[in-house]
Input
Amino acid sequence: LAERYQDNVDVRQYWVSEKLDGVRAHWDGKQLRFRSGNIVHAPDWFIAVLPPQPLDGELWIGRGTFERLSGIVRRASPDNAEWRQVRYMIFELPGAAGTFSERAEAMRQIARQANVPWLREIEQFPAVDRNSLQKRFKEVVKAGGEGLMLHRAHALYETGRSDTLLKMKP
Output
């Protein structure tokens, strides 16, 4: 649960990523589930490469495709051809130890080890200063993106609303 970005935040303490407009999905190590707790009926090949550890992320196709994506991932009987377009973009390792910077590196390793196009970490960028953050925000929104997420680099994993995770939306 992210708080809203405020201009008084020291952005140099944060990693920045694009806020994806996808379908939130949680992998518990055995099952892929929607935020509601209902099972995502993904094809066996899609989940076979997911690690035994929990992951949190977005099922995603691309910018401006939410309705099409939602139709694909919410079917009780998955269509393999349609699922080939879907990526699981991970942004967190629920319950994992270490700082967000350490968890971000672990997510990159998980995606590299799986070595498949449908499992990716959401790319994180350092927030250099407020001006570069605003520039990136404008670029993402102009290109059809939803906004940005800022995750405090030294934050330990926690549940609930916190200023360790901020969202920046128009």
